[in-house]
Each structure stands twice: as C-alpha cells, then as structure tokens.
Design brief:
Aminopeptidase; single chain; globular; seven-stranded mixed beta sheet; about 35% helix; alpha+beta; about 160 residues
Length: about 160
C-alpha cells in the first residue's frame, strides 16, 4: 500500500491530473452508493455527493489536503479530503472501497489526517458524516462524538474530537 498526499494548506498549489481526479470522484460516488442501505433516496444521494465533481474537488484542493491510498497494483482504494472552512479545517470525506473495508485502511487514512491536524497546531477535529450507521460507528471508534441532532432532511451531521 502507498499513500500519496497533496497538501496545499501551507500556500503551495498542486493539482491532480484529470485521470486522478476522475478516479477520486468515481471512488466517492461509487462508495457512497455501495454503502447506502436505504438511508438516502437516489436524489438525496446525488445531493450528498454534490461536491464530488472533478471541478469541485480541484477547487477544494486548491486550499486543501488530499491523501490517496493505492494498492500494490496502483489502484486507488481510498482517499481522505480535508478542506478549509474559514479558519477551521474539517474532514470533508474519508472513503475506502467497500471490498477493502474492515482491514484497517480507513484507520490508516484517518491517522494520516489526525497527524495533519496536529502538525497544523489544531487541537480539535470536525468531520462531516453521512447518515450511514457504519460511518458514525467508524468515527466513534476513533473517539468522535456527534454534535447536534440531524433532522430527517439533513444529509450529513457533524462529529467532533479533541486531540
């Protein structure tokens, strides 16, 4: 396994090639579809993934951070995107292909993000979580707590952790 990082949080700007950004978008969209067990209708899934277009990922990456996890055959199997929201950073998405789930790859990507937050001098992490029970369980296993009570109409909710 290999992790490739694009870190534009400190002023430099590196973009993704079109093929890599297309792979990231495809991973996010396919994974979200695969994980859905009736939590979202098809139109809600589309709204949930409205950020997952090549243009929007490249735009977020201009001032963000992307960690991509590749298997030995150089296939993208996971990614984590950290974005700026004002002066704060949040984990916008953390995805691992479903066939690679429950093997520690999500935790590997998460630990990579947590290290980034520590290096940036942050003492807390916020993450946008879709309403998938396994997503919430993943973050809870890493010490996050849910903030607020999402309504039926909310597509995501926030989870928070002090580091």
């Amino acid at each position: 396994m290999k992790i490739k990082v694009i870190d534009n949080l400190k002023g430099k700007t590196e973009s993704l090639s079109q093929s890599k950004v297309d792979n990231v978008v495809a991973l996010i969209r396919k994974n979200t579809q695969d994980v859905n067990q009736g939590e979202y209708r098809s139109d809600d899934l589309e709204r949930l993934n409205d950020f997952a277009t090549p243009e929007k990922i490249q735009k977020e990456l201009e001032r963000g951070y992307l960690a991509m996890l590749f298997n030995d055959e150089k296939d993208l199997i996971g990614c984590a995107l950290v974005v700026r929201r004002g002066i704060r950073l949040i984990i916008k998405t953390l995805q691992v292909k479903t066939v690679y789930c429950r093997k520690g790859y999500g935790s590997l990507l998460y630990k990579h993000c947590e290290s980034l937050f520590e290096q940036m001098g942050m003492n807390e992490i916020e993450v946008e979580v879709p309403k998938f029970p396994r997503s919430e369980a993943f973050y809870r296993s890493h010490g996050f707590v849910k903030t607020g009570n999402p309504t039926q109409r909310d597509l995501r909710f926030a989870m928070f952790k002090y580091i």
